[in-house]
Design goal:
19% helix, single chain, 2 strands, 86 residues, 5% strand, two-stranded antiparallel sheet, mainly alpha
Length: 86
């Protein structure tokens, strides 16, 4: 893509991006983001009635911008440096 887009995708256990959105081959695309815990995504979607997490932060009065990600929001396997061990 010639421009940055706010966009969700999937990632498997091998850290390979799975993006069913684009019709064309995505090998030239670069992805930058975070892997959220499914429970956090589902709870946030139920609260905001939207599936976006970062783009809909305004629906939570910018809680993520003010406080950062709550404990358990990021999937530890992909973000061990940001997740506290239990």
């Amino acid at each position: 893509m010639p421009i940055a887009l706010s966009h969700a995708w999937l990632v498997n256990d091998n850290m390979e991006v799975i993006d069913p959105t684009w019709v064309e081959e995505t090998s030239d695309f670069a992805y930058f983001g975070v892997v959220f815990n499914k429970k956090f995504v589902m709870e946030t979607a139920a609260k905001t009635k939207c599936y976006g997490i970062l783009d809909t932060d305004y629906l939570n009065r910018h809680q993520l911008k003010r406080e950062g990600f709550p404990q358990g929001a990021l999937l530890h396997k992909f973000h061990p440096e940001f997740c506290k061990s239990n």
